[in-house]
Amino acid sequence: MDRSRLIKLIITFTLLSVSSCGAADWWEDSSLYQIYPRSWKDSNGDGIGDLNGITEKLEYLKEIGITATWLSPIFKSPMSDFGYDISNFYEVDPIFGTLDDFDALIKKAKKIGIKIILDFVPNHSSDECEWFQKSIERKDGYENFYVWENGFDDPKNPGKKLPPSNWVSIFGGKMWTWNEKRQQFYLHQFQAKQPDLNYKNPKVREEMLKVLKFWLDRGVDGFRIDAVPHIFEKVNDDGTYPDEPLSGATSDPDSYDYLTHIYTKDQYETVEVIYEWRAFLNQYQKEHGGETRILLAEAYSPIDVIDQYFGNGTHFGAHIPFNFNLMGLRGSSNARDLERSINSWMEVMWAKHKTANWVLGNHDNSRIATNFGNHKVDLVNVIITALPGATVTYYGEEIGMSNVKTECTEISCDDRDPERTPFQWSDGKSAGFSSSSKTWLPIADDYKKVNVKVERGADRSTLNVFKGLQKLKRSSAYKAFKEDGGWSYSAINDEVFQVIRSSSKEEYRILVNFGEKLEEVGPLINSVNSDEHVMEYFLLTSNSPHRIGEKVNLNNIYLMPFEAVVLRRKIRN
Ligand code: GLC
Q1: Which of 267, 384, 490, 529 is the most buried (most CB within 10 A)?
Q2: Which residues pair with 557 in a beta bridge?
Q3: Which of 164, 163, 229, 152 is nearest to 190 (CA)?
Q4: Going by CA atoms, what residue is nearest to atom 12 of ligand 1?
């Protein structure tokens, strides 16, 4: 049997066995949306987005069909990594507002039915965090809050020290920085301003549970766990740190790619700590009631490791370990590349755990329009909503925002700035993002055309296609495939990708042409029942010459270059 048939069989079998499990929990097929708070909506005219801005615009998420939004960090921070360097895990940074503003956001979110998920950054704090300052001073209880080590005497420079291992940090340069006061090196997987917390210390683990509880008590619906693979590092039995082998990929010893990260990534203890956090959330729900609080895990790791982060059969970890596979595709990728990319998730995660999620973009990666080309934004939005499971949309992808050329300023000089520019609400001043004409990153040149206001009014705009897709995703017939029907996906040729979803009442076919040529496909069905050959256009993208409701015969169907369509057929019982 060929591999793709085998996968389809496994999937069908799995689907049959799910059918008796009852309704899905809210997160399983949720539509998640990432807000980068600095860039979504500025309410006080300082050119930087804030919590009140999010509260003010929350209805927009409802309008576009979002279930839950995860916010990049809003906590007290010197902003060396824009909030991923936390100096107080229990406070809101004044740039974003106050705890009262946060409570007001939660209150409104609950009222209108949007779930709020916070970013939990457990791997490190800021070097300006009180814990680190106390650790430098070896204050009682904080001596081992971080990873400290003596290093070695440098034979070439008497009086100088060499770091404990050859490890290179993710942002480049040594993973160990010397602290004069403490006379030791400290470990940092990211910037030197982001010292790693020491998870071998039970006090650190306790403190982080307190952090989770603090925000759960304020009503959050879950957490996105930052930088999961980097939580633990290998320590030898004698307390030394083993060097990592050279990768051969680059000759630059300061580059993260210089080494193969067998001792600083995806260590087995990391899996355990994720299970610990999940158990904590489950227990919280038991004690406090309410709906499931979820964990999303950021792990750029191989699928067998992602599998572990999800669970091992007896223990559960993250409900949604992000699936970044699709972000690996580029403009030149075709339907077959897409199929391969989807398979690599489905073969493990769906086949074993019946779970899937599809991430298109985040604040660390180039935008879809820039990666795939503007004309493919709708296509990938169609694909991720056609597939089963949760979708994760980075703010701006629903309107087709592009990367923006940015220059270093006093505020920011990060190579990820281009995908972090202000959200484009309208064609007005500063794209409706801020009342100030000075925004922390520049507004995109295309904002007059690419913005919420204009796209609301254009029939087949990226925004309206997105909204139509979300509506479809929530419709009972479309969802019902899991309970009483089936589904499949495949590349029908190099350029055309098809997803079928059917219940006992309706069948949907989603067809996407990734190519720049007109494609004729068919027959797409070999049933003798001619009723089954005719479908109607149900949802169309801007490249489509058809009209909603128009009939189409599956024996011969053509797709314009970069056209994506959803077809529907009612099933007569
Ligand atoms: C994660 C974040 C990234 C941040 C890093 C360090 O990868 O997504 O933005 O720089 O962690 O916290």
Answers
A1: 384
A2: 521
A3: 229
A4: 84
Residue 2 C-alpha to ligand 1 middle, in angstroms? Answer: 40
pLDDT at 481: 73
pLDDT digits (tens, 9 = 90+) for 545-565: 999 999 999 999 999 999 999
Q: What is the DSSP string of 286-304?
A: HHH-SSPPEEEE-----HH
Range of the domain at 402: 25-123+202-241+262-471
Q: Is 46 a catalytic residue?
A: no
Q: What is the mean pLDDT of the chain?
A: 94
250 inside domain: no
CA–CA separation, 534 and 517 (whole Å) = 24
Residue 170 lies in a domain: no
HSE-CB of 147 using CA atoms within 13 angstroms: 31
**Which protein residues touch ligand 1 with a CB less than 6 Å away?**
81, 84, 121, 190, 226-227, 298, 363-364
226 is catalytic: yes
Amino acid at 521: V
pLDDT tens for 325-345 read 999 999 999 999 999 999 999
Alpha helix (H) residue ranges in 256-376: 268-288, 303-310, 335-345, 351-353, 368-372
Q: Pick from 329, 330, 387, 335: which is nearest to 517 by CA?
A: 335
pLDDT value for 10: 45
Asked if residue 527 is part of any domain, the answer here is no
Does residue 13 surpass a pLDDT of 80? no
- The amino acid at 286: K
Total of domains in the chain: 1
SS3 at position 179: strand
Output the domain CATH number for residue 313: 3.20.20.80
| pLDDT score of 530 | 87
Q: Is the pLDDT of residue 271 over 80?
A: yes
**Number of the ligand 1 atom closest to the C-alpha atom of 121:** 12
Residues 6+ apart with CB under 8 A from 272: none
Give the tens place of pLDDT for each residue, 62-107: 999 999 999 999 999 999 999 999 999 999 999 999 999 999 999 9
- For the full predicted model, state whether its pTM sits above 0.90: yes
| 517 Cβ neighbours under 8 A, 6+ residues apart | 495, 561
Amino acid letter, 306? I
